[in-house]
Amino acid sequence: MDSKRSGLTLIELLVAMMILLVGIYSVARGFPRLFGLLESERVRTEMARSAEQELERLKLAPHQIPAAITGYCPVAIQDEQLVAFAPDIYPEATPDDPDVMMANPRDDLIEVSGELFEAPGVRPGSQVSIYPLRMGPAGIADPANPGEYLEVYHLTRLERLEEPPRGNSVPDGYFYLGSDGQLFAPVEYEHIHIDYAWADEDGVLHWVENEAVPNPGYVRAADVDTPMFSNVVPDMSRGKGRHTYEVAAIDPEEPYPPAWLPERTVAIDPVYGTTIALPAADAHRVMHVSYQVKMEPDFGGYLRRVQLMREDFEAPADTPYEHDLKLGLLEDEWPLFDEALDGTPLDLPVNCLIVDLATGETWTDADEWITLDESSGKLTFAWQPDGPAPLTAQEARGRSLRAYYRTIYDHTIMVQKAPSYFIEDAIAATYADERHEVLFRTYSVRRSAEDGDYAELLFPKSAIGQTVVVDYVVGEIVNGSFIIDRRVNNEMHVIRPLSDTDPAYVEPEDAPDAIIRPRGVIALNHPVADETTGAIGVMGVRGASLTVRAWWNTPQGRVQRISLDTLLMPRPLL
């Protein structure tokens, strides 16, 4: 009797299951990689969006942009010599020699120069004005001398006196600059910020911008050796009187903000360094602040910029009062703050710091009414009427907050600003021991190595890639006087590297403190009149580029970067 088969045999079923399991395993094995790629793309998108938001904010409020954001050491020590680095270079490896410091644009750009701000109004019940540092938090390497790392001042425009003052006494609102370079101003100003032109022995004009001169004193051009200083051109000068504020001593035991401050005195938040307090009389005054951002030692013991995220957001005022930080995976083993500015240990480490931008109050994830999920980056605020929070939900509504936090992958958004003005090497050389203050913004003029009919400007290697505009005059020297034939305003160039065959490319071979030779170059567009009598007078070289960079590390430890650039055109000098 024949029987008909139906279905699968056991062997066929086992073979089918094996094939299915192999397929499922292959797909499942690819999921982690797929999820990793999706997360990497999410982080890249979020960092790009954050950089774009920062760039747009700065473009809409250019008054908040500092005069420069630069490195405290735009050089690396190699073979016992100072070697300038280009701002786009990031070393992938740590040097084997512990005495070699590898400079790079993520860790070493810590100097914020001339951040311009309007002091906020004084809130009811307070006697001080609180300003949250825009590029901060600040770092004070020597708490016994905070004025070395924080400078606050305001400038008052002065008119130029045509005739020398009698008895060197200058009336209020004026300054006097002589052709020998000597400067006088009212005694209330310890320094004068001066823009001026000077002539060398060939009659060629040179321009210096925003030089701080002691009052009374001489402009630095009077100390120039080569080219030989001839005279200052007084009627081309502009002056501002500077009132510099004393920085109060740092004491975490004292309440902050202080109840009041003496005239022309500033205090910094002694714990976190995120805000500064000013006297009530300075409310709504336009001021400048220069400072170093928060630093910490790297594995070689060198002080480097702390990699952190700075994020502004509106206080959540609707239940459940939550805010999702842009990035999760916050660092919890390496706190953002574990000690105050003077080194005093904190009672509890801080992984996330929140600043109320209206009042300057600071709160942390260590407060019992703030909950932080380090993995997801979720902040929860317990705005309860009878709870420990300083605000209710209604009071928090509309408040602008700023959060600082550190992630395990060192996510950070940084701003790099080309210097607002460059100065000639001849002037920079007069700074002697203070040369580090001007090294990153020097230039020199030479005839082109390829075509002597044109002039070139040479820059430090750290300026490569920056955009500058140049104001200059072209003419000829007749009987020791410079006769102007052509004036050029706001000619724009991007500083490019020198060819390695150019003599200026060679590094100096003498002592480690030798002046770094320029390694970047631009060629001016208009030819000099001729080889013998033709001359060029550079009247201003000013940075025009602003870069916002997003940095982070991959789980594999590779440095990732997104750069966004824009231009900020300065006003012509001529």
Describe the structure.
With 574 residues, the protein is mainly beta. Among the domains are: 111-292, no CATH class; 308-406, Sandwich (Immunoglobulin-like). The protein contains three helices and 38 strands. The radius of gyration is 29 Å and the shape is globular. The model is unreliable at 509-515 (pLDDT under 50).
Shape: globular
Strand segment count: 38
Tell me the span between the first and last alpha carbons. Answer: 114 Å
Radius of gyration, taken over Cα atoms and rounded to an integer in Å = 29 Å
Which secondary-structure class do the elements indicate?
mainly beta
Residue share in β-strands: 35-45%
* Number of helices, where a helix is a run of at least 4 consecutive DSSP H or I residues: 3
Percent of residues in helices comes to: 10-25%
In the predicted model, the low-confidence regions spanning at least 5 consecutive residues are 509-515
Biggest beta sheet attributes: 10 strands, mixed
- Mean of pLDDT: 86
Q: How would you sum up this structure in a few lines?
A:
Helices cover 10% and strands 39% of the residues.
Helices and strands, with pairings:
Layout: H1 10-60, E1 68-70, E2 75-78, E3 81-84, E4 111-118, E5 128-132, E6 150-160, E7 174-177, E8 182-184, E9 191-200, E10 205-214, E11 217-218, E12 229-244, E13 246-247, E14 265-268, E15 275-279, E16 286-292, E17 295-297, E18 303-305, E19 309-314, E20 322-324, E21 337-339, E22 345-350, E23 352-356, E24 362-364, E25 370-373, E26 378-381, H2 393-396, E27 400-405, E28 412-417, E29 423-424, H3 425-428, E30 442-447, E31 455-459, E32 467-478, E33 481-494, E34 496-497, E35 520-523, E36 534-543, E37 545-553, E38 559-567
Parallel strand pairs: 6-7, 13-14, 29-30
Antiparallel strand pairs: 1-4, 2-3, 4-16, 5-15, 6-12, 6-16, 7-8, 8-11, 9-10, 9-12, 14-15, 17-18, 19-27, 20-26, 21-22, 23-24, 23-27, 25-26, 28-37, 30-31, 31-35, 32-33, 32-36, 34-35, 37-38
